[in-house]
């Protein structure tokens, strides 16, 4: 057997988790986390594409995909425990499986976001943000966000100058931190 250590540092604090497993179990956990990550990424990309392409029921699908993720992860951990781990899954193994599943899903989702912003967008995402901002009442916007609406428009203008890889990197970091 071997021991692996996983350092988790959410928001400044930190704790160390010892994961004791054989190398073959570790490799099996990582292999299945890749497969499960593909399914989670498909869920996340479905919500993303429904939102950015403004398809029918876009906000409902986005919200449903967001809420479905923890249930998918639970189901994958349960399936892995029952079929691949002999009915026993320690906390450390489950944590590794879920963490690596989210990491793989984040990477695959980032690829899908890059494809969208590189080949499909043509400025429609920024125009969606501008349209949404223009639809808001100026006084209510300034009261809610504590900044002038003109400053928000300047931020959107600066946002429009970003490259596809900039969007992708931001989305990757957001999805990694949100999933942890």
Specify Rg, calculated over alpha carbons.
20 Å
Order of helices and strands: EEHHHHHHH
Overall average residue pLDDT: 80
Strand content: 5-15%
Overall SS class? mainly alpha
Spatial arrangement of strands, main beta sheet: 1-2
Helix segment tally: 7
Question: What separation lies between the terminal Cα atoms?
Answer: 27 Å
Helix content: over 70%
Total beta-strand segments: 2
The largest β sheet comes out as:
2 strands, antiparallel
Apparent shape: elongated
What are the low-pLDDT stretches, counting only 5+ consecutive residues below 50? Answer: 9-16
Tell me about this structure:
The chain is mainly α and 180 residues long. Helices cover 74% and strands 8% of the residues. Helix 1 packs parallel to helix 3. About 4% of the residues have low confidence.
């Amino acid at each position: 057997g071997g021991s692996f250590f996983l350092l988790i540092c959410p928001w400044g604090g930190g704790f160390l988790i010892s994961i004791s497993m054989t190398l073959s179990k570790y490799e099996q956990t990582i292999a299945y986390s890749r497969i499960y990550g593909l399914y989670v990424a498909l869920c996340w990309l479905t919500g993303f594409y429904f939102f950015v392409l403004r398809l029918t029921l876009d906000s409902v699908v986005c919200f449903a995909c967001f809420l479905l993720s923890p249930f998918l992860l639970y189901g994958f951990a349960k399936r892995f425990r029952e079929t691949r781990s002999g009915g026993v899954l320690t906390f450390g193994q489950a944590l590794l499986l879920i963490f690596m599943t989210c990491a793989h899903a984040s990477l695959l989702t980032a690829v899908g976001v890059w494809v969208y912003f590189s080949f499909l967008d043509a400025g429609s995402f920024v125009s969606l943000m501008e349209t949404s901002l223009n639809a808001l009442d100026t006084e209510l916007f300034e009261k809610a966000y504590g900044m002038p609406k003109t400053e928000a428009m300047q931020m959107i203008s600066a946002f429009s100058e970003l490259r596809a890889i900039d969007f992708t990197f931001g989305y990757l970091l957001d999805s990694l931190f949100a999933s942890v």
